[in-house]
Amino acid sequence: MSETHATIAPGAPVFPPGRYGRRRNPGRRRPVLRALLVAVLLAAMGLVAAKLYNQYGDPEYRAEVITYTGITDSRVVVDFRVTLPPGGSATCLLRARAHDGAEVGHTEVVVNAEPGARHATVRHEVPTSARPFIGEVLRCRPAG
């Protein structure tokens, strides 16, 4: 027969004394430590986001392909428009791809805007090692 105590609530488990070690108090938590860890995590995520934005994203340098023409076995001509800071310059990476998606050529071109102008339209030839299917602008970044 098991031993029952009047101070134990009905339905609560009864453990033999000394058998399972010391039980923890259920109310002991560290909210300050948890808040500090969350703050450090958010700060680290903010630093990573800022680094990635500076490295890969600059909304002042946008390029859009107008057309790609002059497709031969060794080249494609890409017409594109670049949005720049007024009077600024950018280095744009152009790429030509074959029908199966393989890159068959790439080149960098420096684009300069007229003083006070925010846009520059450029036509540039991309030399290729095989017949291209498409010409595209991968990215533009500040020249330098």
TrEMBL record:
A family per Pfam:
DUF4307
Source organism's superkingdom? Bacteria
**Region of interest (Disordered), residue spans:** 1-26
Query: Per the UniProt record, which residue ranges are transmembrane?
Result: 32-53
What InterPro entries would the database entry show?
A: DUF4307 (IPR025443)
Please provide the record's keywords in A-Z order: Membrane, Transmembrane, Transmembrane helix
- Keyword Transmembrane assigned to the entry: answer is yes
Record's protein name: DUF4307 domain-containing protein
Tell me the organism.
Answer: Micromonospora eburnea
